[in-house]
Amino acid sequence: MNQMTSDNLRSAFGGESQARTRYNIWGDCAEKDGFKNVRRLFDATSDAEKIHATLHFKAMKDVSGDFAVTSMAGFGINSTSENLEAARGGEIFESTQMYPAFIAVAEMQGEKEAVKAMRFATAAEEVHAKRFATAKEAVDAGKDLDVENIYLCPVCGYISFEEEDKCPICGCAGSKFVAY
């Protein structure tokens, strides 16, 4: 594997792993604040980040070494609204800046598995940002997120508030989605 793509995959792996832990912590905070559905959104998104990290890890193949830290933004526990805004900002950064740059390098280097993993993550992160924005609007109005279920695609990390026939990102059958 080419070194730049390898470095980018390690960085993406680290960022997704950190986001997963952050979302678990912020989910605890949301539940303590009385927002059980926001908690479920954080939990589903945390599991989506694990999917992304796993895809990146697998795409690294034989690469070893320390994992890079992509960003220190969004650290700390604040109000649920502030945590949702930080989460949204992180997802926007990943989908508009980090992954497009990483994909360009991987494409240039002919790293097809890395490109696939990062394209799935990019598309899912765009949706995550929208889901966090919806949750923030509810929280800022003093309400919980108004959803019955939250559905996670186990292949690419796409999150939906409705049942899907198939994933719009990777085509996975909706029957395989995990409900929260």
TrEMBL record:
CDD domains: Rubrerythrin (cd01041). Residues 1-143 form the Ferritin-like diiron domain. GO terms for molecular function: iron ion binding; oxidoreductase activity. Gene3D superfamilies: 1.20.1260.10, 2.20.28.10. Pfam families: Rubrerythrin. InterPro entries: Ferritin-like, Ferritin-like_diiron, Ferritin-like_SF, Rbr2/Nigerythrin, Rr_diiron-bd_dom, Rubredoxin-like_dom. Residues 148-180 form the Rubredoxin-like domain. It comes from the Bacteria. This is Rubredoxin.
